[in-house]
Design goal:
The complex is a heterodimer of chains A (420) and B (312). Chain A is built from 18 helices and four strands. By secondary structure, chain A is α/β, with parallel strands linked by helices. Chain A has two domains: 278 residues, no CATH class; 108 residues, Periplasmic binding protein-like II (D-Maltodextrin-Binding Protein, domain 2), CATH 3.40.190. A four-stranded mixed beta sheet of chain A has the order 2-1-3-4, sandwiched between helices. The radius of gyration of chain A is 30 Å and the shape is elongated. With 312 residues, chain B is α/β, with parallel strands linked by helices. Chain B has two domains: 230 residues, P-loop containing nucleotide triphosphate hydrolases (Rossmann fold, 3-Layer(aba) Sandwich), CATH 3.40.50.300; 61 residues, Alpha-Beta Plaits, CATH 3.30.70. Chain B has ten helices and 13 strands. The radius of gyration of chain B is 23 Å and the shape is globular. Classes of the chains: A alpha/beta (420), B alpha/beta (312). At the A-B interface, helix 1 and helix 9 of A face helix 3 of B.
């Protein structure tokens, strides 16, 4: 009876004590603020933009005939750019820019072939989107002028400009449409981030927790009451609950905030990466891979944590593990653009990468179900192996003190538990 | 001789039995062929220098380490997690959660030993009263002095009223007042019926408190049995003489094993009582003898004899 109980006692002790720590509360609040800022980004940008998003550019037109077509083109590209003819010298215009009246000046002229040339002047040339819009517009004007110079009729001109008809059709039966792919990409992107940060953060927390108990030497009392294996798993699940609690807070804040701002967000990032009607399968896969990824790295972290005797050594000990997570994340980021690359296919079966990369594949592609299941099976097998191996190391590791920051300690820890 | 003693007592239920226990770490032998019987409700002392194998033995008794050979049983079964609520353990390396309040700490550890929260709290309160530190209940451990932390640690080991209590160096690092306080607590636990095994490198603690003891040296038991019997079978006695005439000549007196001159006279270790008789006859005519005392050998004497050098 005491057997069954102690597992839950440790689990809730870990959960509640972590929940109460200042660092946990602060991290959660900070992240909630970040989530709120991100989901309200368009509103916030609007508040800080005193010109209501409009940019005014002064135009000095030497030719007296370029302004009108130029202005027309600019309007067509971006309604928020306001062009005005500047009556005065170039020096005066520069002063006005410095004062902030204008974002920049465009000097328009004609070259020897009677085609437009221009110079753009601004306080800094960091704002490339404004420049690009202006350049594109002027390019159009130039093309128009050049076309009329070689005496093309408007009909000919139209033919020249008519966009080519180019459709994308996926041959696979369930292949995702372009729209679905964008949607999946956005979702996978967000979930990859969640998996990445959670794994790093909570695996760290577990390693720290174990190392703290070990360095404070309370471990020996603990393992004389409850088996180390049970302790290890109670801790992993306790912190797992903690992570789910935190995620639930973030997701509900994010969801609430998003539904409040749906209108304004439709235009921006969220319009491209739509989040309405997320496929149920993707959600289920994300939960499965999140949980499995967590268990894999949590088990690894617990047994690495059991090998150090000073808290200062924890970071050093788990660095290789963190590297694995980072590598997986990098590969996944690359894979977002090219999910069907052979490299991505291969790495999705490597258990340390599976939670992120296999998820990327099921989210973005239509892969055979057996591939996903095979990936999950390898992952589960690895977790079981790590748990058994890790539990043995943990059992010896928690009794081992002294200089311990090399992987030789794993051997030593195993030796401690061996019956000779 | 220990076995005969135990048999003599008749029925022994909760006996802790170590049979030919060995422990090796690679090529290093930490404990070698240790056989002991610790009867129920006894106080048993382990003596030995650092590295003698005391902590390793305790860890094997508790099942934290597997033996490399031999058998350890308590009440006929090995100690494992199914009996952990009956066992209390004070590890040599003290440790509690530094950030946790005394109360939360003890309740947590007691619950892991199968105790109810309310029960644990009332036990904790009475222990804190006893140690005259009731105001520490809601303090974090890191705010307490080292001595008080040790008391809390002791409470953590005994709060669940264990039947078997293993104390690894319970008195080390304490001032004399606290040592007395803890000794009394240990003795009262024994009176309440707990079997207590404790280790110390301070001979006088073991000498004072234990009926039975074992001296470990480099992993091997060099002496074990009841204190009285060990002393009797040792044979040698100590003789203290204070006199106002020179006593140096006794150094080479036949039957004198060791001698140590003191300010007032001399301390001798002699082979037996009959040597004292002879010496007395010899010196009684030489002058005034202020003190002539024949004493039982101390554990320290026995240890020096068995192991070859002192560790104090």
């Amino acid at each position: 009876m005491i057997h069954m109980n102690s597992f839950w006692i440790i689990l809730f002790h870990t959960y509640i004590n972590k929940l109460k720590t200042k660092s946990f509360i602060i991290t959660t609040l900070l992240t909630v603020v970040i989530v709120l800022v991100l989901t309200n980004l368009t509103n916030i940008i609007a508040i800080f933009d005193k010109n209501d998003g409009k940019e005014t550019v002064a135009v000095l037109d030497e030719t007296g005939q370029l302004f009108d077509p130029f202005n027309k083109q600019v309007r067509a590209i971006n309604k928020d750019i306001n062009l005005t003819i500047f009556q005065g010298s170039e020096a005066e215009a520069e002063k006005a820019v410095e004062k902030g009246t204008y974002q920049g000046i465009v000097l328009l002229g004609l070259n020897d072939e009677r085609l437009p040339i221009a110079t753009y002047k601004a306080k800094s040339i960091a704002d490339s989107s404004l420049f690009t819009d202006l350049q594109t517009s002027l390019q159009q004007v130039k093309t128009m002028l050049a076309a009329s110079q070689i005496q093309l009729t408007p009909v000919q001109l139209e033919k020249l400009y008519e966009p080519v008809s180019f459709k994308k059709i996926a041959l696979e039966k369930n292949a995702k449409t372009e729209e679905e792919l964008n949607q999946a990409r956005g979702l996978v992107y967000v979930l990859l981030f969640i998996i990445y940060f959670s794994v790093i953060m909570y695996a760290n927390m577990i390693a720290m927790e174990v190392a703290t108990e070990k360095s404070s030497r309370v471990m020996e009392i603990l393992i004389s009451s409850v088996s180390p294996i049970k302790q290890m798993f109670a801790k992993i699940i306790g912190i797992g609950l903690l992570s789910l609690t935190q995620l639930a807070v973030f997701l509900s804040v994010g969801y609430f905030s998003l539904t409040q701002n749906m209108e304004s967000l439709k235009e921006g990032f969220f319009g491209v990466y739509g989040f309405d009607n997320i496929p149920l399968g993707t959600i289920i896969y994300s939960v499965v891979f999140f949980i499995l990824g967590y268990f894999l790295y949590a088990t690894l972290a617990a047994f690495l944590g059991s090998l150090v005797s000073r808290i200062e050594d924890v970071q050093q000990m788990i660095t290789p593990m963190t590297m694995l997570v980072v590598a997986g994340f990098m590969i996944a980021m690359f894979g977002l653009g090219k999910p069907d690359a052979p490299f991505i296919t291969v790495t999705s079966f490597i258990p340390f990468f599976t939670p992120m990369i296999m998820f990327l594949r099921v989210g973005m592609l239509t892969i055979p179900v057996w591939e996903a299941i095979a990936g999950i099976a390898i992952l589960v097998a690895t977790i079981v192996f790590l748990a058994i191996f890790g539990a043995r190391v943990y059992r010896g590791g928690v009794l081992m003190y002294g200089q311990s920051n090399s992987f030789k300690d794993i051997k030593k820890a195993l030796q401690l538990t061996k019956n000779e | 001789m220990l076995n005969s003693y135990v048999k003599g007592r008749g029925v022994c239920e909760m006996v802790l039995k170590l049979e030919h226990v060995r422990k090796r770490f690679g090529n290093f032998t930490a404990v070698n062929d240790l056989s002991l019987v610790i009867p129920e409700k006894e106080m048993f002392g382990f003596l030995g220098a650092n590295g003698a194998g005391k902590t390793t033995t305790f860890r094997m008794i508790l099942g934290l380490l597997d033996t490399s050979g031999g058998k350890i049983t308590w009440d006929g079964k090995p100690i494992d997690y199914s009996t952990s609520h009956l066992v209390g353990y004070l590890p040599e390396e003290r440790g509690l959660y530094p950030k946790l309040k005394v109360r939360d700490q003890i309740v947590y550890l007691a619950r892991l030993r199968g105790m109810q929260k309310s029960q644990a709290l009332s036990e904790l309160k009475s222990w804190l009263e006893r140690f005259k530190i009731p105001e520490y209940e809601n303090k974090k451990v890191e705010e307490l002095s080292k001595g008080n932390q040790q008391k809390i640690q002791f409470i953590a080991a005994v709060v669940h009223k264990p039947k078997l209590l293993i104390l690894d160096e319970p008195f080390s690092g304490l001032d004399p007042v606290n040592v007395e306080m803890l000794k009394e607590a240990v003795l009262s636990l024994k009176e309440d019926g707990a079997t207590i095994v404790f280790s110390s490198h301070r001979m006088e603690h073991v000498e004072e408190m234990c009926e039975h003891l074992c001296i470990l040296h480099k992993g091997s038991p060099v002496v074990h049995g009841s204190l009285k019997e060990i002393k009797r079978s040792f044979g040698k006695k100590n003789l203290v003489i204070h006199a106002d005439f020179p006593l140096e000549f006794l150094k080479n007196y036949p039957g004198v094993v060791r001698s140590k001159p003191t300010m007032e006279g001399i301390h001798l270790q002699i082979e037996g009582e009959y040597i004292a008789e002879k010496i007395l006859k010899e010196i009684v005519s030489q002058g005034f003898i202020r003190k002539f005392a024949l004493e039982e050998p101390s554990l320290n004497d026995i240890f020096i004899e068995k192991v070859g050098d002192s560790y104090e």
